[in-house]
Amino acid sequence: MKVMLLRWAVVVLLAYFFVPWLFGANAYLMSLIVASLVIGGVALAWALLGNLGGMISFGHSAFFGVGAYVSALLAINADFPIWLAMVCGGIGALLVSVLMLPTLRLKGPYFAIAILAYAQIFRIIATEWRSLTNGVAGLSSIPSLPAVLWWESGSKISSYLIVVTLVFAFILVYRWVANSHYGLALRAMHESEDATRVVGVNSTLLKAAMLLLSACMTGMIGAFNAHYINFLEPDYAFGGVWIVIPIVAAIFGGYRTIWGPLVGAVVVYLVDQLLFKNIFPSGHQIILGIILVVMILFSPGGLLPLLTVRTRKRTC
Question: For the segment 96-145, what is each residue's pLDDT rounded down to a tens digit?
């Protein structure tokens, strides 16, 4: 317990003090860090559904886009405070995921494709419902994120502190679910869903809860991103980038661990933008694909489990 608290103290110290102090003056680098944390938030939500819920989704961009639009529209048209609008964005994504509950009858690739279809449906709705979303012209002048401490509203450091707090909250929720009796039941379902039903576990209800929770988390990250960039249009909000890169990040970091998706997102995105993009401006993401394949072949569990094993070997 003491070791765990010490680790959390170190992580919090690094995140809230060391990063702003070291990189705060570099607006470009801070913007990349914020973007990597946005991807990390989506990766965590995706991994929660995949790891605990046992369902692989290709449609989290639906939750991301709905959360972004709900928050932006409430802030613009109803003058909602940003914090409340972001919470409503998460709730909006949760309510949308209720429409997807019938897909829980599907398994494997069929579930993944069905969720992907929903993402395309919501993208088309956002494009065609011009009276509400302004269609392909998009929403501009979305209110900026509130000020944090002495940093002004919309500043990179202020935005960073908000998103890192949001991601840490996701990790705590993920950890609580994983360590609860619900997490135990979910892990048992992976071994034999029929056997867990025999002992009285409602597998459908647990899967539905994971889908709702994952959608809410993704919607809140989407809401944050809308207020961070101050602009929104359907192809961006519901774009495939909000599911492809988080999946790559989660698998690379280790989607069966709690910290793996976040570590994977930060490493994958920053290395891609700072290194590979400068070397290969037009085809830099191909390198990410190659690295992911190598990682899957030599360490299927991901980067974080690999580092943990090596650390233990050195300690022994």
Answer: 999 988 888 887 788 888 888 888 999 999 999 998 898 888 898 899 88
292 torsion bin: left (phi>0), alpha (psi -120 to 50), beta (else): alpha
In the chain, how many H helices and how many E strands? Answer: 17, 2
Question: Comparing C-alpha atoms, which of 269, 213, 264, 240 is closest to residue 65?
Answer: 240
Among residues 43, 110, 59, 64, the alpha carbon closest in space to that of 302 is found at 43
Q: Note the helical H segments in the chain.
A: 2-13, 19-23, 27-47, 60-77, 82-98, 109-128, 130-133, 156-179, 181-191, 193-198, 203-229, 234-237, 241-253, 260-271, 277-279, 284-298, 303-315
Does 148 score more than 50 pLDDT?
yes
Break the chain into its structural domains and give their ranges: 2-315
192: tokens are: 């034999």
Q: Give just the sign of the alpha carbon dihedral 126, 156, 275, 252.
A: negative
The three-state (H, E, C) secondary structure of 126-180, written as one string: HHHCHHHHCHHHCEECCCCCCCECCECCCCHHHHHHHHHHHHHHHHHHHHHHHHC
Quote the CA–CA distance of 93 and 106 in Å, as a whole number.
21
Q: What is the mean pLDDT of residues 39-64?
A: 90
DSSP 18: I
148 strand-pairing partners: 151
- Asked if 259 contacts 304 with a C-beta cutoff of 8 angstroms, the reply is yes
| 165 CB-side CA count, 13 A | 11
CATH T-level topology, domain 2-315: ABC transporter involved in vitamin B12 uptake, BtuC (1.10.3470)
Q: Judge contact between 160 and 30, C-beta under 8 A.
A: yes
d(CA 133, CA 19): 36
